[in-house]
Amino acid sequence: MTRYASKTEVSTDRSRVEIERILKRYGATAFGYMWEGTRARIGFAANGRRLRFDLPLPDRKQFLMSPSGRARGEAAVAAAWEQACRQAWRALALVIKAKLEAVEAGIVAFEAKFLAHILLPDDTTVGQWARPQIEAAYQSGETPRRLGRPDA
Questions:
Q1: For 116, which of 11, 86, 127, 130 could close a Cys bridge (C-beta 3.0–4.6 Å)?
Q2: Which of 92, 97, 79, 107 is nearest to 39 (CA)?
Q3: Is the pLDDT score of 109 beyond 70?
Q4: DSSP calls for the chain
Q5: Which pLDDT score, from 0 to 100, does residue 147 have?
Q6: How is the beta sheet containing 30-36 ordered, strand by strand?
Q7: Do 42 and 33 form a contact (C-beta atoms < 8 A)?
Q8: C-alpha distances in Å from residue 142, one per residue of 4, 37, 137, 152
Q9: Model pTM greater than 0.70?
Q10: How far apart are CA 142 and CA 119, in angstroms?
């Protein structure tokens, strides 16, 4: 199966601007963007919440060889890496737009659709906070009565 937008020609910059425009259209009150190494991050405020999406980006090293196993030249490596980055940004734009449209249509509440991405006061997301607790519950076979801090 082909990955969504695997052949897109939409630049990462255009996708980022589109995400910002989508967020504004659906009532976001703040937006920010940054990248570091193999990760991009967007943050925004909406519905009285601060949210963050971390977008894993491909490492250029994974494109040194072609699918047939031949070494690629620098231009081919750059082209393949850029295509993978474009695909990732298009997928993020799709996810954010779909979530916001589902909220707008009344299909689901904002907090339910964006729960994993809501920032807690210590700058972790609810997803980062909950994952270890969910894993512990599955390993123990017991549902916690109350979720608490993973280190408590």
A1: 127
A2: 92
A3: yes
A4: -PPTTTT----HHHHHHHHHHHHHHTT--EEEEEEETTEEEEEEEETTEEEEEEEE---GGGGSB-TTSPBPPHHHHHHHHHHHHHHHHHHHHHHHHHHHHHHHTTSS-HHHHHGGGBBPTTS-BHHHHHHHHHHHHHHHT---SS---TT-
A5: 59
A6: 30-36, 39-46, 49-56
A7: yes
A8: 38, 39, 5, 17
A9: yes
A10: 27
Give residue 64's identity as a one-letter amino acid code.
Answer: L
Q: How far apart are CA 28 and CA 52, in angstroms?
A: 13
| Straight-line distance from the first to the last Cα atom of the chain, in angstroms, rounded to the nearest whole number | 43
Domain coordinates of the chain in residue numbers? 12-119, 121-152
| 39/147 Cα distance (integer angstroms) | 29
**Residue 87 contacts residue 22 (beta carbons within 8 Å):** no
Cα gap 150→127, rounded to integer Å: 12
CA 65/CA 71 separation, integer angstroms: 5
CA angle 85, 88, 91 (to 5 degrees): 150
- Whether the predicted pLDDT of 63 surpasses 80: yes
Whole-number Å distance between alpha carbons of 91 and 95: 6
Nearest in space to 23 (alpha carbons), one of 53, 3, 58? 53
